[in-house]
Structure formats: structure tokens, C-alpha cells
Amino acid sequence: MADGAVTARPGANAAAEELAVQAREAAIRSQGYWAGVWKRVKRDPVTIACGLILLTMLAAIVFAHLIAPHDPYQGSMIRRLRPIGTPNYPLGTDELGRDMVTRLLFGGRLSWFMGITPVFLAFLIGTTLGVLAGYAGGGVNMLIMRTTDVFYAFPSVLLAIAISGALGGGTINAIVSLTLVFIPPVIRVAESVTTGVRNLDFVDAARASGAGAFTIIRVHILGNVLGPIFVYATSLVSVSMILASGLSFLGLGVTPPEPEWGLMLNTLRTAIYVNPTVAMLPGACIFATSICFNLLSDGLRQAMDVRA
After folding, report:
1. 115-142: buried (b, 16+ CB within 10 Å) or exposed (e) per residue?
2. pLDDT digit string (tens) for 218-257?
């Protein structure tokens, strides 16, 4: 027995060394893949420009309390609807005489928050359910995916309006409604990519070695599916921001006097014939942010495509 134990020890050491070598090779391949992704991103000037614009906008709204020239809530009927270029008010004033630069900076906080938070929550919930459906298959897949299909019977805009109308106005209710709208498409993408990965050789090898379902999903599945799901979720941010602004425009989102780009469009719509350039500024911010997020997600998708 002692001899058997002694002779088995070199084999165990060899197996451990082989596993360590495979782990190092996998890490090198992973680093090489992401290095290639970054190299392709750097060669895409549109993606870099959109990323820089979004970072600049994010820095501006985060530090709005430091760079904003006026109080976002303080107005004056004497200086209402001042045109662009007015001294001390470079972008004019709104219908209540509040500085547009300040309102746009502070409004960006709520617009970005309402655009990113629902997508982030939908990413967490949708990825969990989609990976579970894709890996488990069978009845679990049928239950999750058929429930998801029910939400596809309604257009996303109408579904968001219906849920917000049922819950009532307010920032939290708008975020809840948008999260419920974005969970189904994330589930479908997560289920699709997980189904394509679960039967690959390395997953079968892990399953044959006795690894549990949770270990296989955490170690082998998530690393291969999170990238495509994340890129798809990035493309939803622009849609979320537009829908959130639309809910605020309809009175189902942010309520006055809070600054938010969609709500500012609503309050400035009566001034479009008096001062159209000031009235269109919130819409221009929504458009610029949305198009930058769309172009950024397209660039990331192309960079993560190995065939690119």
C-alpha cells in the first residue's frame, strides 16, 4: 500500500502541473484577446471620439455643482427666455428665467441616471435568468422564455407608458417600468449565447470531471457570455434614455421643478415660437448622448468580433 501511495504521488503532481500550465495558457489567451479588442478599438476614431464625448459629459454632470454658474432652481420672470449669448447666460434662460447651462448640467444627472440604471438592473436580472434558461434547458427554459415572449407582444414604448401609468409618476416608478421593459431582450440574448456555449468541449470536460452546475456557470459559462451581453446592454442605454425622457415629457417620469432633459423639453414646448434655439437645447443633449452610446456600442461589438 505504501508503495502504491508513493507511485501515485508523481502522477498527481504531473496532473497538477498540467492543470497549472493550462490555467496559465488560458490567462495568456484571455489577455491576448482583450489586448486585441483594445487594439481594434484604438484604430476606430469614431468609437474613441464617442467615448471621449461621453466621458466629458459624465465629468460635467458629476461635477455640475462645481462648474454650474447659477442655482438650477432660482429664476426670475424679468429675464425669462433670454436668447443664446446673453451676458452671464451663455445658453440663455428658460421659461422661468433659470440659467440653461445650469439646468442642462443638473438635468444630465437625472437623464443619465434614468438611462443607465434600468439597463444595469435589466442586465443583472436578465443575465441571471437567461443564463439559467440557456444552461438548464427543458422545462426551465420553456417557462422563462415563454414568459419572456409575452412581453414581446407589446411595443416597448407602449409597455413603458402602460406600466408607468399603472404605477404612477415619479423617478422610481419610471425606473421600475423601464427595467421591466428591458429585461426580456436581455434574457433572450443571454439565453441564445449560453445555449451556444453549454455544449462546447470545455464545458463537457468540466461536467465530466464532476464540476457542479454552479461552478460550470461561474467559471466556464459567464466568462464567455458576459461580453456579448454587456455590449448589447450598452446599446440599450440610448433607448432607455430616450424612453425615460419621453416618460418625463408625458408627465410619467420626473416631476417639476427637478431638472431633467425630457421634462425640460415639455416645459419649453410653449416657447418654441418665441425662442426656438433655447427650446431645442435639451433635445440636442438627448440626441447627442443617444447617438454616442449607439456608435460606442457598435464599435465595441465590432472590436469584440474575432473575425474583425
Report:
1. bbbbbebbbebbbebbbbbbbbeeeebe
2. 888 888 888 889 889 988 999 999 999 999 988 888 888 8
